[in-house]
Design brief:
It is a single chain. The strands form 2 sheets. Strands 5-6-4-3-7-8-10-9 form an 8-stranded mixed sheet. α1 crosses α2. The chain has helices at 32-51, 69-81, 97-100, 105-109, 112-120, 170-179, 193-202; strands spanning 5-9, 15-19, 57-63, 84-90, 126-130, 133-138, 151-156, 180-188, 205-210, 217-222. The protein has 7 helices and 10 strands. It is globular.
Length: 224
């Protein structure tokens, strides 16, 4: 299946993608970089290391590699905080080079070589991007993915439940719960009641926390 995309500029000046002929976007129109930094870096990565200062290597699993923005921001955060990160991300529809090469994250963040390396690294291989960040991009559907290791953090960045209902199925969150280390954290932008209840049913301790600009709340879920 070939997807077509439109590049749009969000309110913080950074780009996102919209699926052509739909209203479905990869990030908030209020700001792609500010949204990802708030949800996945401040509310997950930095939260976790503040509460687990002795852990020097983090294993992170991302649902939805997309534009690579979360991976880019995490690599920058790993270097800034002196933490080793093993980062695995799955996506069924990898972006072609003629799309990601026109996104402006690298220019805004002044990380041109880092972003280029992240996006051009071959899929399926676990590769050092820099001394702090090891990346494996996997072209697979989440329902078919077999977890073979435990993770400290899960970035759940799929499309919204109304746009990708199957990936928000209760059985998915049971599998993600089992894939986390005790004390591990899953974070997602979706704070709908049905999603919070689904997470709780899977065993998570769920809290609503303040969201990024334009979104009142997001969800952080911990494995006891």
């Amino acid at each position: 299946m070939i997807r077509k995309y439109e590049i749009i500029e969000t309110e913080d000046g950074s780009h996102t993608l919209r699926l052509a002929d739909t209203a479905v976007t990869f990030h908030s129109n209020r700001g792609a970089i500010q949204e990802s930094a708030h949800i996945f870096i401040q509310s997950a990565f930095e939260y976790f290391i503040q509460n687990n200062p002795s852990i020097k290597e983090l294993r992170i699993f991302e649902v939805g590699f997309g534009t690579g923005l979360n991976a880019l921001l995490t690599s920058i955060a790993a270097r800034r905080n002196g933490r080793q990160v093993v980062y695995r991300s799955i996506d069924l529809y990898p972006l072609a080079g003629d799309i990601f090469s026109r996104l402006n994250y690298a220019e805004i963040l002044n990380e041109r070589e880092l972003y280029k390396t992240i996006m051009q690294t071959p899929w399926e291989q676990l590769i050092y991007i820099d001394p702090f960040f090891k990346l494996q991009k996997i072209n697979i559907d989440l329902a078919q993915y077999e977890f073979t290791t435990k993770y400290d953090l899960i970035y759940f960045d799929a499309f919204a439940p109304e746009d990708q209902q199957e990936i928000w199925d209760p059985s998915i969150f049971v599998r993600l719960f089992n894939a986390l280390e005790s004390g591990g954290v899953l974070v997602t932008y979706c704070s709908k009641t049905i999603i919070r209840k689904t997470l709780e049913s899977a065993g998570f301790m769920v809290e609503k926390i303040p969201g990024p600009r334009g979104k009142r709340e997001i969800v952080r879920a911990r494995k006891p």
